[in-house]
Amino acid sequence: MAKNILICGVGGQGTVLAAKVLSQAAISNGERVISAETIGMAQRGGSVVSHVRIGNDVYSPLISKGQADVIIAFEAAEAVRNIEYLKKDGTVIVNKKCVQPTTASLTGKTFSSDTMIDFLKTQSSQVIDVDTDKICTELGSTKIVNMLLLGAACKSGIIKKDELKAAIKLLVKPDFYELNVKAVDYF
Prior knowledge:
The protein is of the alpha/beta class. 42% of the residues lie in helices and 24% in strands. The chain has eight helices and six strands; from the N terminus they run βαβββαβααβαααα. The protein has a six-stranded mixed sheet, sandwiched between helices. Strand 2 and strand 3 form a beta hairpin. Helix 1 crosses helix 7, helix 2 packs parallel to helix 4 and helix 7 packs antiparallel against helix 8. The two termini are 26 Å apart.
């Protein structure tokens, strides 16, 4: 049975590395993985979406709407934008932090992550909201948001912590390994 994980955020948040770590963890576990990224003006804070599909019966890299087992959202508005991909009994892991788009700051209109998370809870009974700002302060680095969200994703059963840690060891510079493992172990 396939596992479909959609990772979404904005440029510069580490979504692509998170997708690579998740993919490597599954590959190291002997599973077949197909993935793809759609990156729109990512260097300017644009949307970044990674599709990670795990399983022997997966033949296309893109997840169909209504088929994602898990959405891992690095930003609440991106979770809302991509909610149509979530299957009926799927899980949403969402960062509480809200990145205001440039258009919002230009018009003076802002939006709140609480409003978006409340909406997400009407769409899924399994929403895990993560206060990454608070946890990053506790752990002493803002560079671990991606691993915090992957650690939270372990709660959904989509991946195991030991598999993530092995993948981190392969893909992350040795100087940052311990910090990234600390982030995964936070949950």
